[in-house]
Amino acid sequence: MPAPRLLKDVASALKTRAAETTTSSSTLPSDGSLLRGQWTNPSDVLSVLMIIGGDIVQKALAETSGGLFTPVCFSFGWVAYSFTALVNLLGDGRLLPEPDYPVKVWNLGNGYVRDNKHWVIGRIGRDHEGKMTKEFPLEGNALRIGVFEAARCTTGTSVSGSGKARLFSIVTIVLQFGIAAIPVGIWGEWGVMMITAAGTLGALAAGALPQWRAEKLPSRRNSKKNFAISSGNVITPSFPQQKKWILILSRDREI
């Protein structure tokens, strides 16, 4: 075969190979098309969001529940939380999580002390230590004592959570429905709106269960006893130093 003809065949083969490579690369989906596909049909992302976050949902319900309207919006993690709640109900029969902050409770009348088993009391101790450490540092002292007078609750329990939590909850619910209405207006696809509405109603129904009020709110009221909550020498990730504090809850101004 003459050299010019051989070079022509090689050049033709290389050109054909380059054209095939360009055609195959042009058929691959781009990043933009992949992102658009996940927005229109979030199958992969939705499976991840439905699995993770069950403990977050449980603690959010524990923080804001107790009334008829619980400001916890429909979001990810409810599938995982539903299995956790089912196991807890079939086990110890409780919805509130275990205390995540160790404290001891003292009866100042008889000196009886016990380890705390209630999630709300543990959160009171955790929030108290964080706030008092920032506002009133120890500065070399060994002990910090805070005395609080228990006041009568003048608000009803029909709505739980603070005013900001309720406001943000309502805004988030409205925003979720607004985003879910986009497929309805553009493509006439009402499946996203149906899932959002069902999830929001399910979340509100889960937070309105009477079991939350029975576990979270006190059954005995108007008590004249005085109690103290103490952390002892506790090392926490937020406060790695050893800190000892005592929080006194009193109905007596002269204690």
Summarize the structure.
The chain is α+β, with helices and mostly antiparallel strands and 255 residues long. The chain has helices spanning 3-27, 31-40, 43-51, 54-64, 78-90, 119-135, 163-187, 191-207, 210-216; strands at residues 104-107, 113-115, 144-149, 227-230, 245-250.
Secondary structure layout plus pairing:
Blueprint: H1 3-27, H2 31-40, H3 43-51, H4 54-64, H5 78-90, E1 104-107, E2 113-115, H6 119-135, E3 144-149, H7 163-187, H8 191-207, H9 210-216, E4 227-230, E5 245-250
Parallel strand pairs: 3-5
Antiparallel strand pairs: 1-2, 1-4, 4-5
Helix pairs in contact: 4-5, 7-8
Task: Describe what you observe in this structure.
This protein is α+β, with helices and mostly antiparallel strands and 255 residues long. It has two domains: 1-40; 41-255, no CATH class. Helix content is 53%, strand content 9%. The protein contains nine helices and five strands. The protein has helices at residues 3-27, 31-40, 43-51, 54-64, 78-90, 119-135, 163-187, 191-207, 210-216, and strands at residues 104-107, 113-115, 144-149, 227-230, 245-250. Strands 2-1-4-5-3 form a five-stranded mixed beta sheet, with helices on one face. A hairpin with a 5-residue loop joins β1 and β2. α4 (54-64) crosses α5 (78-90) and α7 packs antiparallel against α8 (191-207). The longest helix is centred in the first third of the chain and has 25 residues, at 3-27. The termini are far apart. The model is unreliable at 234-243 (pLDDT under 50).
